[in-house]
Amino acid sequence: MTIKIKKCTLEDSGILQEISYETFIETFKDQNSPENMNAYLERAFNIKQLEKELTNISSHFFFVYVNNDVAGYLKVNINDAQSEEMGDESLEIERIYIKNKFQKLGIGKVLLNKALENAIDFNKKKIWLGVWEKNENALAFYKKMGFVQTGAHSFYMGDEEQIDFIMTKELK
User: Is 142 a catalytic site residue?
Assistant: First the structure.
């Protein structure tokens, strides 16, 4: 198994949209209404929105490939692109999504390490993310990787308010 990471460019917006839809649906469709899922997908992953994010100098996307197949992606934010006010010393992991068929192969750890590498490159002192309180697999993974819950915030899936735990890891 060969794993590669590639930084996304504006030309990747169509592929990014496809993988965003696929992985988000796989992850959350069973716990949310079709109406709320569709509302979120249309807002978060429409081409104009993705192109805006791809051209933001404070946001960075990376595809992960397994044997030349796009298996998932990572999105990190610094500075004012962070979805919460966490300060200039923080890097946000906004998205780590992996297709179901590629889960449990260590790819999440590969993407997390890429995020940590970015944090070091940008001289950040901590890395943080929001994870849905009901996403037990993700919560267990992040705890195993040294993240601790430091807060919570609201996340809207369509018209439904959900709670994301804020998890933080201090960098040495």
Answer: yes
